[in-house]
Amino acid sequence: MEIKVLGTGCKKCKQLEELVKEVIKDTKVEAEVIKVTDIQAIAKAGIMLTPGLMIDGKVKFTGKVPTKADLVKLITESASN
Predict the structure, then answer these.
(1) What is the CATH number of domain 2-80?
(2) pLDDT per residue rounded down to tens, the chain (81 residues)
(3) How far apart (Å, rounded) are the C-alpha atoms in residues 40 and 47?
(4) Angle formed by the axes of helices 68-80 and 11-27, nearest 10°
(5) Domain ranges in the chain?
(6) Which amino acids are annotated catalytic?
(7) How far does Cα 66 stand from its chain's mean position?
(8) Rg of the chain over all Cα atoms, to the nearest angstrom
(9) pTM for the complete prediction?
(10) d(C-alpha 55, C-alpha 24), whole Å
C-alpha cells in the first residue's frame, strides 16, 4: 500500500504525517509513506486544501487532520481491499 501525505510543511501536515506513521506501526499494515511537499504535485493530485491524504492513488480527504480512530479505519479498510 502506498500512502501519500500531501502538504507544504505546515503544522497540520506534519501532524498528519506523524499520525499516519503511528497508525501503520500500531496496526502493522504494510505501507510506504511518502511525503509530498511540491505545490505543483499537490495541485496536480487535486488537493486544494492541505493537508491531503492519498491511499493507492485515491484522495481520501483534504484540509483536515482526521481523528486517529478514523485514520485506523481508513487504513485498515484500504489494506483489506
Answers:
(1) 3.40.30.10
(2) 999 999 998 999 999 999 999 999 999 999 999 999 999 999 999 999 999 999 999 999 999 999 999 999 999 999 887
(3) 10
(4) 50
(5) 2-80
(6) 10, 13
(7) 10
(8) 11
(9) 0.92
(10) 13
